[in-house]
Amino acid sequence: MDFNSMGKVSVITPSYNSANFILEAIESVQSQTYTNWEMVIVDDCSNDHSVELIEAKQSEDKRIKLIKLTRNRGPAYARNQAILAAGGKYLAFLDSDDCWLPQKLEKQISFMHKNDFSFSYTAYRIMLEAGKLTEIVFHVPRQITYKDLLKNTAIGTLTVVLNQEKLGRVQMPLYRDCSEDYGLWMSILSQGVTAYGLNEELSLYRKCNESLSSNKWKSARKTWNTYRKVGHSNLPSTMWYFLNYSVRAMRKHTRTS
């Protein structure tokens, strides 16, 4: 397979005090069978030794790029800075505490290339904070439209790949009280784009005790605000979509608790 002709993948990784996990994330990218990638890591003013670990990896592998922010701006801003610095045809998202399986990029880019898709996502497995794999795998539907997305929690950020040659340069919304990744998917799909699912387990989502998704009330509030501020939904529509979203989210969190 000619990876060069298929296009470079820019891996977008925000990092904040990620010393416990960042090496695993980087090494999971380095282990990819698809080798035409760059990893753009934006450190959001960490006060642990994350930067030293990243710089050590960077000195060994020039495909790793590090941008250091001078003050803490939050994950959406960090991701946006990485996107602005990205030189690849594709954008792939990987947070500093998550990991990919070795064939993730090869299978997903082939899936997109073969079918001329601009937005794809995959199934993923939950792992515990210490790295132990669970039996929980989130399978995904074949496709998601904008209306589907408003009622659905199926798209895991660590699984998303976007073709920015087709979509144009994207940016996450910078509302601190919104779900920035969900807001980006909402903005893209609202333009008539359809996201396509590859129902193969290709990523590992780390369920940390202090992660945003573990704080269900905060996550729910951010989702509500995303409907209102990014989707510009009126109150009745927001209530309907939020009810559907909440039922699916409750089922999802029940599986992972």
Automatic annotation (TrEMBL):
* MF GO annotations: hexosyltransferase activity
Sorted UniProt keywords: Transferase
Domain Glycosyltransferase 2-like: from-to ranges: 10-123
Q: Which InterPro entries match?
A: Glyco_trans_2-like (IPR001173), Nucleotide-diphossugar_trans (IPR029044)
Positions the record marks as coiled coil are: none
Family assignment from sequence similarity: Belongs to the glycosyltransferase 2 family.
Stated name of the protein? Glycosyltransferase
Task: List the source organism.
Answer: Halobacillus litoralis
Upper lineage ranks?
Answer: Bacteria, Bacillati, Bacillota, Bacilli, Bacillales
